């Protein structure tokens, strides 16, 4: 092989993309996208099954599987949801879930945002040591604090109340919130804050007009995480609530224990408990993705 042919072979090898790039290029094809769509639909099958089960009568559910509605659509009925609305335990627990989740989410977002800004941009004695203490609280498991805090709440009259559950979730949600938002706020360019201070902005105005708009994606991500965690929680609710303050997760578990064949209440109750957090997630999906991507870039 002459020099010209050798040089041409070397150039062709050099121009050939690496193996990893070739694999990624093939994986981004239409067939892989179809496969991912199929996998996504497969993961939605349990949700679809729960929905269709909630639209069937107890007799139909006892006779055959939920997939039979595709051949017998006349089985679909909203009778189970009417029965659910007549069940005071389920409707009351659903309202309790809202009273627990919304304040616990709002308080964590507000307090976490203020604390994250303070740790990121305000000077005060022992700031770094206080932040290390907050980070250390991240490793404290919830199970360790259940009994001590239950005794504390019992002594001050908060045990068995919605307020006690809210305070517990706020206490255990704040360390992660402060850690996340402090790291995000610390990446804001100092020049923006200095320019606002030169214009006469105080700390509160600076926080509200500069930091909050820039930190919107991270705050939205935190709100989604906290909402989903509190809404789906059952361990804390089992310990700290009574019959009058229990959320939907505990109420459904009680229905299973007491009335094992009460499927006409369990199916629609479980679907409502599932669909609300899904709705919240998809409603704020864009902000959630923006927050995750912003954190990844920074």
Short summary of the structure?
With 298 residues, the protein is an all-alpha fold. It contains 17 helices and no strands.
- What structural class do the secondary elements suggest? mainly alpha
Radius of gyration from the alpha-carbon trace, in angstroms: 27 Å
Beta-strand share of residues: under 5%
Task: State the helicity in percent bands.
Answer: over 70%
Flag low-confidence runs. Answer: none
Shape: globular
Number of helices, where a helix is a run of at least 4 consecutive DSSP H or I residues = 17
Characterize the biggest β-sheet: none
What is the residue-averaged pLDDT?
80
Distance between the termini: 51 Å
- Give the helices and strands as they follow along the chain: HHHHHHHHHHHHHHHHH
Strand count: 0
Descriptors:
mainly alpha, 17 helices, 298 residues, globular
């Amino acid at each position: 092989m002459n020099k010209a042919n050798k040089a041409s072979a070397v150039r062709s090898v050099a121009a050939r993309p690496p193996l990893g790039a070739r694999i990624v290029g093939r994986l981004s094809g239409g067939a892989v996208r179809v496969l991912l769509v199929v996998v996504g639909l497969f993961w939605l099958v349990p949700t679809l099954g729960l929905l269709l089960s909630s639209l069937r009568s107890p007799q139909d559910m006892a006779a055959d599987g939920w997939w039979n509605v595709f051949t017998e659509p006349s089985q679909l009925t909203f009778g189970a949801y009417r029965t659910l609305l007549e069940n005071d335990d389920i409707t009351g627990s659903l309202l309790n879930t809202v009273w627990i989740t919304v304040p616990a989410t709002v308080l964590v977002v507000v307090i976490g945002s203020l604390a994250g800004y303070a740790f990121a941009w305000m000077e005060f004695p022992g700031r770094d040591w206080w932040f290390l203490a907050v980070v250390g609280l991240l490793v404290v498991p919830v199970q360790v604090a259940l009994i001590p805090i239950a005794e504390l709440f019992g002594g001050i009259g908060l045990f068995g109340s919605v307020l006690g559950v809210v305070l517990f979730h706020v206490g255990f949600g704040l360390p992660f919130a402060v850690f996340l938002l402090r790291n995000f706020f610390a990446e804001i360019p100092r020049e923006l804050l200095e320019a606002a201070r030169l214009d006469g902005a105080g700390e509160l105005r600076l926080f509200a007009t500069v930091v909050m708009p820039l930190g919107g994606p991270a705050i939205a991500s935190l709100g989604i995480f906290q909402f989903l965690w509190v809404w789906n929680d059952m361990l804390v609710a089992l310990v700290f609530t009574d019959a009058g303050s229990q959320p939907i997760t505990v109420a459904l578990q009680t229905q299973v224990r007491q009335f094992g064949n009460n499927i006409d209440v369990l199916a629609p109750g479980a679907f409502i408990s599932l669909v609300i957090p899904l709705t919240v997630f998809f409603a704020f999906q864009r902000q959630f993705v923006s927050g995750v991507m912003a954190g990844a870039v920074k």
